[in-house]
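Input record (one chain):
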Amino acid sequence: MKIKTIEATAVQIPMKPECLMITALGEHRVSDYVIVRVETDEGIEGVGEATVSERWSGETVWGATEILRRVFAPALANFDPTDIATIDERLDQCARGNWFAKSAIEMACWDIRGKVLNKPIYDILGEACRPLTFTNRFSMGAYDVPRARQRAQELIEAGFTTIKVKVGGVAADDIARVRTVREVIGEDCALTIDANCGWNTETAIHCINAMEDCNLALVEQPTLNDDYGGLARVRRETTPPVMADDICFDLIHAQELIRNQCCDVISVYPGKNGGLRKSKQIIDFAAEHGVACSIGSNLEFDVATAAMGHLVVACENMQIEKFPGDTLGPSYHQHSIAKNPLVIDWPTTTITDAPGLGIDVDWATVKRFRIA
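The corresponding structure, as predicted from the sequence alone:
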């Protein structure tokens, strides 16, 4: 079997008004992502998704589309799509970085492999070590106090048992927001925070210690980009477990984080890590060193969310029971690109046992929301 064609289509779908995301990086109102279709000479197709964000990974929808069409597609012509390791090697030979663009092709190749073997991807990665339905946290934007209070109450009523609050801005505002949410949700609901590299080390330590009475279950990416020393210091000088996310894209990053004792948890997901195979390498390495992993998110559509779900189901060290992740992306958007959307009941997400990713793309919807 050989790769015949690789198509990349940029789409733009708006968020639901109640799900607009505000973080230390700014506001997220619409999602500009790239949907990839890989076709083989035997007529089997696979789909992938690049959930790019220039403010987060540095990738743009225009850059991802062009590197997929002009660099990766020609380089992979006539390659075996089921040989994932060789596909990854070839992509890395072609370009540095471009994690999400690479993951879209690799994701589509896993989809093809699953269809060829007539197995869901989690069965190829290993086997199901947890149910196909799993629990989510909810990531709340960095809202003002009145809106945070209202949103927290809505989320409790919706059944969430873990709520993540975005911080990383003005210290006093962040502390007030987190205190308000804790007041609303009570002590029985887990509360985590995520600074998205918005704080420097001193501010992070000050804020986290000031929130000690809020009983934080997890502190995600509290320090600046690439500041491994600062992250390690935060872990030493504060009480809650620390998660690394925005500074862990590949296995080398994970090795450095663990070598320098920077974190208790690593956020892993296929888009950020350049694909499912590379994500699993990080998860397995972390497991060997007693570091937990959980699933991160970039507000994906159904295709990439399905890939995330297969990773969660297949990998025991994706400790979502202790550190719930976020596989809610499709439900944040006003439209779905899938004919058979994932079942997302907000507190839970369910993937299918269909071969491959288990997602059939609605190409008419993709065409409707295509970015010229």
